[in-house]
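Lab manual, section 2.4: Encoding a predicted structure.

Procedure: take the sequence of the chain (179 residues), apply the prediction step described in section 2.3, and record the output as structure tokens. A sample record is shown.
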Amino acid sequence: MGEFPPEKVNVAASGVLAPLSFDGDLLANYAAAKAADFLHRPAADVNSRAAENKAAQDAVVAALKVSPIRPALWLTLGTLKTQAGELATPAVKMSYLAGAVPIAVAFARLQTVTSNAAAADEEIKLLAQSDVRAALANRSRYEQLLIAAYLQATPQGKSLLLETTQGTDPKFNQILRRY
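Recorded output:
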């Protein structure tokens, strides 16, 4: 089964079929579309935003129960939890443990880690170092994004970025320290 970009999926139509399906791909696609719909569209009010986040989290959890080896979907759950002000550390950790991801997803994961309490978790700090190294390997593409992630990071997230870049790319470490 091929995956459709979230903007091409009819969430309302797939919502009827997804809860009845035991097909991991269908559930994962539905969950990704529901999450993308929530994350990329402003809500009318705070109450509807919370309800939409909960519905997106429920769709992601349902998909992960059927097919848990989906690192990007675990990251999506962590991102939704972060948006809701909930603890995201377990979901983010599972995004690392479930398998490898493309560099763009690794960078998104790094942004999630550095912007919430997950950066304080010692295991996640060790795992996140690989995302920092991957971004630095593509420094020309990710330098400005890494700086933006640093500026938005929690104190623990900033520490993670500084510690990792110190040994990996001291020149870039000096650039971060200027901010």
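Check your result against the sample. Residues 1-21 have pLDDT under 50 and may be disordered.
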